[in-house]
Amino acid sequence: MANTYTQLYVHIVFSVKGRLNRLKSENKEILHKYITAIVQKHKIKMMAINSMPDHIHMFIGLRPDITISEIVHDIKHSSTNFINDKKWFQHKFNWQEGFGAFTYSQSQINNVVKYILNQEKHHHKKSFKEEYIELLKLFKINYDEKYIFDI
Questions:
Q1: Which one, of 17, 14, 15, 13, lies nearest residue 92 by Cα?
Q2: Structural domains in the chain?
Q3: Which tens digits make up the pLDDT trace of 83-115?
Q4: What is the mean pLDDT of the chain?
Q5: Strand, coil or helix: what is 123?
Q6: Which residues, at least 6 apart from 25, have a Cβ–Cβ distance to it below 8 Å?
Q7: Whole-model pTM?
Q8: For residues 30 and 26, what is the distance between their CA atoms, to the nearest angstrom?
């Protein structure tokens, strides 16, 4: 798109279906590389990625000609197939429906990257549910708690 200039930084968060602790540390690196490749296939920059056993965080530099929903759908669909093809689990793997997406400015990039890369340390203090609700409140997003997690 000629003469289109944007600066779109998005922090995306979604969880394993039922918030089960399915993402094992021994598979993190390969999963992160696979998801990064999906993002790069769309000519989107992966700024940071990290996962915990029950959820994943990504920080991307989004293009204006693709929606957040499109990229998240592709990431979830492709990575679900990848995980199931690898047979990492006895039962079928799925991501939970929905996601959180939070935008940041250029001046906040370093803080968001550090936050995502330090998830292990962060979750010694609070659960994913507490973290997620905190993000929703911080960004003043109206929500109904009964729809946040499908446990």
A1: 17
A2: 9-147 (3.30.70.1290)
A3: 999 999 888 999 999 999 999 999 999 999 999
A4: 90
A5: coil
A6: 53
A7: 0.87
A8: 9
